[in-house]
Amino acid sequence: MFNNLTERLEVAFKNLKGEARINDLNIANTVKDIRRALIDADVNYKIAKEFTDRVKEKATGSKVINAISPGQLMVKIVQDELTELMGGHEAKFDLSGNPAVVLIAGLQGSGKTTFSGKLANYLKSQKKSPLLVAADIYRPAAIDQLKVLGEQINVEVYSEPENKDAVAIAQNAIKEAKSKNKSVVIIDTAGRLAVDETMMTEVANIKSAVNPTEILFVVDSMTGQDAVNTAKAFNDRLDFSGVVLTKLDGDTRGGAALSIQYTVNKPIKFVSSGEKLDTLDIFYPDRMAQRILGMGDITTLVEKAQAQFDDEQAKKLEKKIRKNQFDFQDFYDQLQQIKKMGNIKDLMGMIPGVGKAIKDIDISDDAFKGVEAIISSMTPFERSNPDVIDQSRRNRLAKGSGKSIEDINALIKQFEQMKQMMKTMNKMPMSGMRMPGMRR
Q1: Digit-coded pLDDT (tens) for 92-141
Q2: Which positions ≥6 away from 183 have C-beta within 8 Å?
Q3: Reduced to 3 states, what is the DSSP secondary structure of residue 216?
Q4: Domain of 37, in residue numbers
Q5: Taking CA atoms, which of 137, 167, 297, 319 is between 20 and 30 Å from 62?
Q6: CA–CA dist 432, 320 (Å, integer)
Q7: Pair 94, 241: CB distance under 8 Å
Q8: Considering the domain boundaries, does residue 90 fall inside one?
Q9: Which residues are registered as beta bridge partners of 187?
Q10: What is the CATH number of the domain that holds 174?
Q11: Does an H or E element contain 170, and which?
């Protein structure tokens, strides 16, 4: 999302490389480049100027402390200011009430319905019992879309296809939720291609009727500064409690993420990317600031790994590695866990220094398909006993997987190298060398 902004900021910081101390001249040049980078990222000029004015004020007169270069000091100042610009800290998501009611609002095409499904899936993972409500009475496919999403995550969807009163649908849904002991009601409301009075009146009436604990404004981050203007219009009528940024994996310059909180004084609570229902993340301003500055986001990467690897699996895998019994079935299982963590390129971009290196490389989510096809063509005996895979078996695997003999040989060679590496690791204290998801 922020690739262009990250590159521009790196260029700005290079002005200080090799400088012995921060002075008025190099501060002025760096601040000017930072302001241009922000404006180019579609951040409002007023916001960009106030931001860089604060950076300049903090940097002026700063002394370079031991082992810290002026460039590093400026990066720290910009990081702190970016964090504050985006809200400063994680915003609380209020689920009080019996049931808690979450009202979803936004323009058509912003991703409201998909987000509603993602939120229900997230709440299920938090041991909540959500009910999805189809309150979009205008878009013909809206109810069907929500039902499909509900089926995918095994969450009930409340709808009244013949009822054209969205307020009544929302009220009836809450009664239904109480009768079935649902803990959270998620109301997916109608959107329009542009802000209009009919839409605003309807969603405001739903708000008055159900008194939601959370009102989330869903915005397509690819719309840039227009997203900020739309957010202001909705906030003036709804006084929403938080913002959701969707489509962060798209070709966006990031201006919405950097400007919305400042403009409407409401926190960004969630961010999402893609259509998969497990691609929803809590928004952490400090982590996003680190990613913008090319520092990666190891904390989020570790949390994603821990969410997919449970203790029992980790213990069993650790025992097999210790006994040098790691096989193709284990390898296949690990691939499936990694895939559940999200977009592969996004995950790699969370590793400090890697994001810049792979920015121009196309890494498809299908990158593992060839490996999966080969392993799936193996018999259970072959998966558990890789050493028995001789030339005749390799020929059969090539035919079964649709891959070449070279591909089969390359995978087996890589697997053997990995096992050799694990064998070497076994000679080291296991507390210092653990697979992702293994707890101490």
Answers
A1: 999 988 899 999 998 888 889 999 999 999 999 889 999 999 999 888 78
A2: 95, 98, 99, 100, 128, 129, 130
A3: strand
A4: 3-85
A5: 297
A6: 17
A7: yes
A8: no
A9: 103, 133
A10: 3.40.50.300
A11: helix 166-179
